[in-house]
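Write out the 3D structure for:
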Amino acid sequence: MTKQASHPETRGIELIHTSQRRGSARDLFPVWAAPNVSVLNFTVGASLILLGLELWQALLVIIAGSLPWIFTGIVAISGPAAGTSGSVITRAIFGIRGNRLMVAFFGWFISAVFLALNWLASSFMGAELLGRLGFDDPVAGPILVTLVVAAVTVLVAVFGHGLILRTYPYVALVLLIIFLLVTAFVLPHVDWSYSAAASAGGALEGAPLWSAMSIGFAILASTPLSYSNSPDMARYLPATTKPSRIIAATALGGALPCILFTAVGALLATGIEPAAMDLGIQSALLAMLPAWLGPVFVLGVIINTISLNGMTTYTASMAFQSIGVPIRRIPSAIVVGAIGTALTIYLVMSTSLLDAVNLMLQLLVLISGPTMAIFATDVIRRRNDYNGSELFDERPGGRFWYSHGWNLAGLAAVVAGAAVASLFLTSGPWTGPIAAAMGNIDLSVPVSMAVTSALYLAFNKATPSAGGSQAEATIEGVRA
C-alpha cells in the first residue's frame, strides 16, 4: 500500500496501476481496529442492559451483532480486484446512472450519520471535561469541541490513505491501552450479581425479551453493515492478495474491539444507578475514573473519533467524484466535513448521546442492510471478477450501462428490501405493522438482507446481464 503519509493524497477514484500496489492484507487489521476502539461501544453495551437484558443475554447479543463484520470483509475484496473505490465498483450493481443516485442518497446519508454520531460522542465527552474545568456552557462547549475535532478530522482525510495506513497501527495501540485502563477502573463498579429480575421492571420473558434482544442486535449490526466503503481501504493491495486474508483482517479488526468494549459497556451499566444514567453515560463513566485518567480518556475518545471520521470523510470524498460532481478529492473532503459538522451541531442542541446513538443506528439499518447485502451478493455472484477499466466506461453500450444507464435489478432489489424491512422495524418514531403484531420484535436486519439478496439473484436470473450474457442465478463462491 501507499506509504506517502507526509503529503496530501490527490488521487481520487482513478484506477490504481499495478506498479503502485503494495502491502499485505494484515495491514488492514489496525486500520479497522483503531476506529472501533470507541466510546460508542460503551454506550451501545450499556443500552442493552437498559433494555432489560440479563448480562448473559447481552453478551449473546453482542457476539451475534458482531457477525455481520464478515460482510464488511467480503465487500473489501472487491477493492484490490477492481483497483478503485467502492463507490465506483457499485456501478456493476446499479448501472452508471443508477449508481449516481444510490451513492448520492444512500452513501451520503450513511456517511453523514456516522460522522455526526462519532463527533457527537467526542463533543459530549469533551464538553463534560470542559465543564469540570469551569467552562460549563451546555451549548458552546460541545460546539467548540465539535469544530476543533472536525477540523483535525478533515486534515486526516486530506492526507488520506498513506497517513491512515502509517499511523493507525500506533493509534490502535494507544487507544487499546487507554480503553483497557478505563476498563480496569470500571470493573470494580460492576455488579457481578446483577439480575434484571431485581430491577424495577423485572426480568423480561417471551415477546418482550425477544423484542429487547432483536432491537439490541439491530443496533449492533448497523455498525459493520454501514461499512460498504471497505473496498476503499483495501484497493491499494496487489490484485493477487488472497481474498480470505483480506476478509479475515477486515472482519477481525472491526469485530474484536467491538465485542470487547461493548461487553465492558454492558458490565458498566450494571453498576450505574438509573438516576445517574439520566445525566448521560459520559458523566457516569467519567465519575468512575480517577482525576488523572478522565482527561486521558477524553483525549482517547477524541483520537478515536478522528480516526473513524477521518476514514469516513476520506471515503465519502471519493463518493462526490463517483456521482459525477466535478470536484477534486481534497475540496470534496472539506465539503463532507462541513456537512457532518452541521448535522453534529444540530444533534448537540437537540438530543442526548444515548438517545441519538440508539435511534439513528436503528433507522440506519433500513439503508445499510440492503446496500451491504446486495454488494456482498454481487461480489460472490461474480466471483469477485471486476474489471476496473470497464467500470469507468460510461458510454452507452458499455458493460455496465444496462438500460439507459440504469440496472433495474439492483435498484429494485434495494428499494424492495428496505421497504419490506420497514415492516419489521421497531424504533421510537416508527414501528412496522408486522413488528408490532409480533410484540415489537425487530427483524429488520435479517429481513432486509435476505429479501434484497434473494430479489437481486432472482432479477438477474430473469434478465440478461450487461454485455448480453446470462447472469448467474446461484452463488458459486468467491474467486480464490
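The chain is about 70% helix and 0% strand.
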